[in-house]
Amino acid sequence: MTKILKFIKPYRVAAYIALILMLIELSVELLQPLLIGKIIDEGILNNDMSVVLYWGGMMLLLSLIAFFSGITNSYYAAFVGQNLGFSIRKKLMKKVQSFSFANFNTFPHASLITRMTNDVTQVQNIVFMGLRIMLRAPLLIIGSLILAVLVNWQLALIFLITIPVVVIFLVIVMTKGGKMFRSVQQKLDTVNNVMQESLIGLRLIKAYNRRTHEVKKFMNVSNNLKEQTASALRLMEAAMPALLFIMNVCIIFILWIGREQLQATNIEVGEVVSIINYATRMTTAFSMFSFIIMAFSRARASSERIVEVLEAKIDLEDEEDGKSLEQLKGAVTFEHVSFRYPGMSTYVLKDISFHIRPGETVAILGSTGAGKSSILQLIPRLYDPTEGAVYVDGMNLKDVKMDDLRKRIGFTPQESILFSGTVEENLAWGKSDATLSEMKAAAQDAQIHETITDLKDGYETKLGQKGINLSGGQKQRLSVARALIRKPNILILDDSTSALDLQTESKVLDAIDKYKCTLFIVTQKLSTAKRADKIMLIDDGKIIEEGTHDQLMNTSTLYREIAYSQSEQGAMNSVY
Ligand code: M5T
Ligand code: MG
């Protein structure tokens, strides 16, 4: 919690103003019972109207001051709360953007979303409440106690017994409530998780008729959330009547003892009235407490969750003195690289070594799960190798500025990912200052220009959720164009031409040749592999064969088998 409160620092002036205004409101509230006592004892009992009017007017004036302090306090408290929320969200967003893939394994997307929205809101609320009423409650209790002692210490003795009882009671409730609300936030995470999954997989769910199953799953977790929240709230609700009971018993005692003292005439009516008034104010303050405890327990759980994200260790960070890459020729070297995904025990790459000269084309072939994508992910340093090292132009990736490296690499992942937005915006992802003619050139090279111009609004057509959805092959070509637009020195195509027919694919590859970049291409097609300067056959995380098409045809039985099976298919295709 204290770590989160540091975010208030820039807004501390507003926070102090809010606190001062709160103190003004509080003083008025504490003075009022004294004035009421005065009016009764000196005015009403003495039949002196002028005293009643004077102090009555005073009370009115003070109330007005308190009223305006209250309004202004709300304004400043809201200002601090909202700004705090904004800063925390900004910091969280920055942090999450710098997350490595390993970090995402510890924080699932849904959990990050809850943390950035709901959890921040909880903290925001507690800061608002803190500046508005939270401090007022304890101060009101302490102030009331002191003033009650000053008015009549014998009667005030009753408070000295009651207050500790109430405080102990509240501490017990607070500890239990805190635990329960932490679990509420976790349940909320699960609900978000299930909801997110079922929204992403909507089509699949429909196609497999899994709707009732998904609804049931959602109802289940949603019900858990309801039950947990309800029992946490029940605890809070139960605390309220218990609290009122204790305080009312206290008031009855005051009245009882007060009456006896009145008969003995060593006390005035006004004093009893003031003390009763302080007692009722304390009761209100205490009942405010159960509300505050609830918000506080939630906010504490939430702030812990926020801090967890903010303090997450990022395992893939730029070295302080990373070399900047002015230019890249495009040589790539793997030196005894072994790799396992963070948190996994089995190696998916085992002792991989190769050297690729600038401008060469490398085709990577292998069965599914062999480790092809894993090799490629190491080049833009999405992960660091577990053992061994990766070099570009002879420099270890760890010594190079990460942003510079990635700027010079065009990467199309195996699953084409497009963002909601226009075609143009999607292309500009590759290069934010790209001109329209650059976009068109890249789109032409990726053989997608014509498809785009045929769309309703051409390059301005909206894609994604509220726009047009493209076919698999169209998506692939668009993401190839996005990679080409930055004129990369190293281009990585992870099976990004798999959905294209042979003719279109060869046109795309012809166009890529002009870019003179080092090309890594994962493919299943021999026609593509044939063009490469080097073919690597990967199996079970190891390079089992490498060489050109002609060399492999001579030396590798496996490669010959692949060639044979594909030429058979080719023959069949030409027959039909
Ligand atoms: C190689 C495992 C996967 C497989 C092995 C991407 C990824 C993979 N793996 C993980 O544990 N976590 C991950 O995030 O690594 O996988 P690959 O490199 O994706 O294989 P591929 O590209 O050759 O396969 P494919 O199907 O794309 O042709 O054991 O479980
Ligand atoms: Mg793959």
Automatic annotation (TrEMBL):
Citing just one GO molecular function, the answer is: ATP binding
Return the GO cellular component terms, semicolon-separated: plasma membrane
Protein's UniProt keywords contain Electron transport: no
Q: Name one Pfam family in it.
A: ABC_membrane
Sequence ranges assigned to domain ABC transporter in this UniProt record: 332-565
**Segments crossing the lipid bilayer:** 12-32, 52-81, 133-151, 157-175, 238-258
The protein's location, in the record's own words, is: Cell membrane
Membrane topology per the entry is:
Multi-pass membrane protein
Instruction: Indicate the segments forming the ABC transmembrane type-1 domain, all copies.
Output: 17-298
Q: What is its main location?
A: membrane
**Which keywords accompany this UniProt record?**
ATP-binding, Cell membrane, Membrane, Nucleotide-binding, Transmembrane, Transmembrane helix, Transport
The source's superkingdom equals Bacteria
The protein's name is ABC transporter ATP-binding protein
* Protein species of origin: Cytobacillus kochii
